[in-house]
């Protein structure tokens, strides 16, 4: 049979397992132009939380009793579409479903010989391109500058830190467990690391880790951590607002110190974005990322959860910081 | 004698008259290369409040028992500098002093035949260039877009609204007195106006005034007004953070709803700046502003206070919104 995971209820605050529902679905008959896909890997990402609210963001909300969608890797197991043959692997925004039919639109073929398949959901997929394009298009990083990355051990943050290092910057990573701190230092080559859970005065810790101040702040987290970074930002600093995982499950908009004065006195740019704003630059980004990955300059970690039915739990674990690197479900 | 106004004490919160001290000073003898200036007009501006704190901003803080400085227009009454002759009018960052000596550095000659002298402190000076360069360099305004301006009747806001109108935008101005609201409508041609003091639900008022949403928000004020605008911002919106007069006199950084989620979901740019970031574009800006002024497309109002000794009170009045247009002291 064909399992699928539906949105059972819109989460209030932190999502619960009961907000999801596992059901069995039959697969329709293949029409001309279509392919039948078997799911291999599912990407779970913090931004999906936003689509669970009944609110139009940059992308339509999920519908109740309809499948959740996210970035996935699947294998073509039957094809009536001349562009795809049996055995092709593809990535795309697909339904949380073991098998599904696609007309081939917006499916991207991925090459299992160039990188392992799951990498196309992370370092060579949405999180890697987010890091690359955010840094270059918004951050306009220059060699010798200092960048602070929150959520530095996450799927995006870890790539951000490594690219910044490749570009000749001083990299300072913030994370919340000793294991992640070790990863930042030993695997991703961050120059300095700050464990926000064991550091009393984060503002001072950042000042110490950034003797020349903060030129670029990559925002993955939000809240107190960011306030501390903002207070160390340099003139003409750039704050790349990629995500605020600490805020996604709040039912009311959290309050914090108003940032306008810092923006004015330091002439700071603060820019929110999603990687889809730069869709025309994806090929350039993926080519560069693949090159860095294959020549060993770019490392990536994955937390792999096995079993289709564990997808909702893997998603929930993101908000507990249980992943070290990209969180992926393997079917 | 030669009166001068010193910083007597660093204001705590809202400045008081006793934070200033009027003293008499003698003028030194003129050396070669110097000019003796007689003050004609003094510009008082909200940003001066920042320089009264003991804190390095984009510009050094004022020193205790030293003269306050601001943009001023003066007449050359004695000259030992070949670049200036008696009767020349100049603008520059000068001391709050009736007479002073300058070596001519950073003095800009202004032409009393092209515009009235006080205009060089406002629409053709720092406030006008701030409006022009902020809109073009950061706002990248496109015809047909909607811009909301807070502090719209102020020296910067009124020019922002008019330039946006010249560029083909829908302009919505926010101000706090009926007199200012009338000025916005009748003199500056704003399409819609909102009196924030008599409007119960500003968010709804903005939604109504901006049926196509807000593409650009020019921030002069900060606080609740801005929160309401942010909630109406469009995808790819730009928030030009020029000033936050509601925050300058706070002894603690005020809190408010964290803005990161809006920046992300709408891919919004928020940029703080000072006009000195674009100093190489001043000639272009002043040429264009002078043309618009002289062909009647750009109107400007001034609140003129007479008497050198009233300069501190004129400055304090800014924070009460007592000016309608540029606040200037005439000597």
Structure, described:
The structure is a homodimer of 331-residue chains. The first copy, chain A, has 331 residues and is of the alpha/beta class. Chain A is built from 9 helices and 16 strands. Chain A folds into 2 domains: 2-122 and 300-330, Quinone Oxidoreductase, Chain A, domain 1 (Alpha-Beta Complex); 127-276, Rossmann fold (3-Layer(aba) Sandwich). The first copy, chain A, has helices spanning 48-51, 126-139, 155-166, 178-186, 202-209, 224-230, 260-265, 282-294, 311-318; strands at 2-7, 20-25, 35-43, 69-79, 89-95, 99-102, 108-110, 146-149, 170-175, 192-195, 214-219, 233-241, 255-257, 269-272, 302-306, 326-330. In chain A, α2 (126-139) packs across α3 (155-166), α2 crosses α8 and α5 (202-209) packs across α6 (224-230). The longest helix of chain A has 14 residues, at 126-139. The first copy, chain A, is globular, with a radius of gyration of 20 Å. Chain A starts with a strand and ends with a strand. β13 of chain A pairs antiparallel with β13 (255-257) of chain B, so a sheet runs across the interface.
